[in-house]
Amino acid sequence: MNAYILKRLFLIIPTLLGIFTINFFLIQAAPGGPVDTMIAKITGQSVSIEDRALGNDSSNERLELSEETNDLASKYAGGQYLTPELIKEIEKLYGFDKPIVERFFLTLKNYLLFDFGDSFFTDKSVLQMIKERLPVSISLGVWSTVLIYLISIPLGIKKAVKHGSKFDVWSSFFIILGSAIPVFLFAVILIIFFAGGNYFAWFPLRGLTSEDFENMSLIGKVMDYLWHIFLPIFSMVIGGFAGLTMLTKNSFLDELHKQYVITARAKGISEKRVLYGHIFRNAMLIVISGLPATFISMFFSGSLLIEVIFSLNGMGLMGFEAAINRDYPVMFSTLYIFTLIGLLLNLISDITYTLVDPRISFKAVK
């Protein structure tokens, strides 16, 4: 087992390198970039749309200048309105005065040392931005994932045992309802009813804590935190438990009719022991295998809309804003961090297999 863990840890390095390399060059090759974004901001401030349409003197001066340096200006949208010296300064500011291969190896070297640099547009270090936003994402990702598994697994097992009963039918109705309603729509409904919409104002509309959080007692801080996080977590749990519940049910149903279960029952073993001593370890393998993907989706992509709706500044919103603004240090650092977390969770998932089913062994894996 130790040899397998070491092998998987060593494999994380080339896997992470491959994912990072592909995404780095794909993003760099995509239209737009931080230089284009900055040029657009500058030209948008200095030259209005009306001026460009009318062709006033200042615009014509820039156009005449751009004809002399067409090769440089044509690289960027709106570059014809700026002097070549200014364009070169912008390139140097964002490191685009270096070849792409040099930029790649420099970025890779820094990231291996967990030096993610500074954001292009916020004047903050990426680590500082992550530190500020990580508590929100951890709160949403961890709590929602834990609650989804705590609800879905027992519910799926009970639905499998009582397959075809009234309980199975009625619970399926709520599961279908949870699958049909998008998470963001359910969040909006909760806000309308319980967060100062048209009915009740029982919960806060934004933020993870109150303004006077630091002055509260320990119990007060815990209650305030739970008060703020309740509606976002509730929205994510409702939107995420349906699929896992049906996966658990189908997995248990598949095991219930196998020969070893029939043999165990014929020997007079209690139904509870058959269910949790024999079926559970086999049926849960497929459920555990989906844990890394579930956690990452809840931690990042799944929480994006929730962060927007409830005004929570988390990692999902930070990554989305970075992609819109072409803030490469933030984009690549979030990609690097979440890829690393996903690879480590895959390893933890494999180790969990042996805890659920001791018969599984990785000694033969080479």
Key structural traits:
366 residues, mainly alpha, 17 helices
Question: Can you walk through the features of this model?
Answer:
There is one protein chain. This protein has 366 residues and is an all-alpha fold. Helix 1 packs antiparallel against helix 17, helix 8 packs across helix 11 and helix 8 crosses helix 14. The chain is globular and about 85 Å long. The N and C termini lie close together (11 Å).
Shape descriptor reads: globular
What's the total number of strands?
Answer: 0
Approximately what portion of the residues adopt beta-strand conformation? under 5%
Order of helix and strand elements from N to C terminus: HHHHHHHHHHHHHHHHH
How many helices in DSSP terms? 17
Average pLDDT score? 78
Weakly predicted, low-confidence segments: 45-69
Radius of gyration: 27 Å
Helices and strands: which structural class? mainly alpha
Reported for the largest beta sheet, the result is: none
Estimate the helix proportion, in percent.
Answer: over 70%
What gap, in angstroms, lies between the N and C termini? 11 Å
